[in-house]
Amino acid sequence: MPRPADLAFGGLVWSFGDRVGYYYLALLAAAGSTLICALILHSRVGRVLVAIRQNEALIEATGVQTWRYKLFAFVASASLAGLSGALYAHFIGFLNPDAFGVDHSLNAILAVILGGSGTLSGPVVGAFAVVFLPEYLRVAETYRLVMYGFILVAATIFMPRGLVPIVTQGAHSLAAWVRRWK
Question: HSE-up of 62 (CA within 13 Å, CB side)?
Fold first, then answer.
């Protein structure tokens, strides 16, 4: 598969032939996808989707056709998955099912669990944790996997809602403490 062509904007040429240019393309796609998700989440459709997640029977009882909103959520998520798959396919140059093994799927689920599944920023924070935690643990090479497993199990047990809600709650508590002592 050929890589995307160079992009000329004004007098500036952005080349996707090298890894740095492709990194910025992927970063732009991730930022755009996050922005689109944030806009959907803070719209009427997003509020209905959150309500459906909380109590679908109650929302149906109010007269909302939940199947339409669930179909929208499915199509939107499939579109974002297709975008990421297209970027990955062009970056690698070929597709092989070995790259989509169980360990990669579990890492994606783990990123959502670690960051917080009910938030928009949770999976982003969880992805950074899943990527950088094994790198930080490379210092202890012999016990790296044991420490990694212990940290993940402890985080799942003691932080069932993820990192983002705990950090947000801590920031609110700190702000209230600062306001009280002013």
Answer: 9
pTM: 0.75
Query: Each residue's pLDDT tens digit in the chain (182 positions)?
Result: 455 556 666 666 666 667 888 888 889 999 999 999 999 999 999 999 999 999 999 999 999 999 999 999 999 999 999 999 888 888 888 888 877 777 777 788 888 888 888 788 888 888 888 888 878 777 777 777 787 788 778 887 888 888 888 888 888 888 888 888 87
The secondary element (H helix, E strand) that includes residue 76 is helix 66-92
**Rounded to whole angstroms, how far apart are CA atoms 98 and 30?**
24
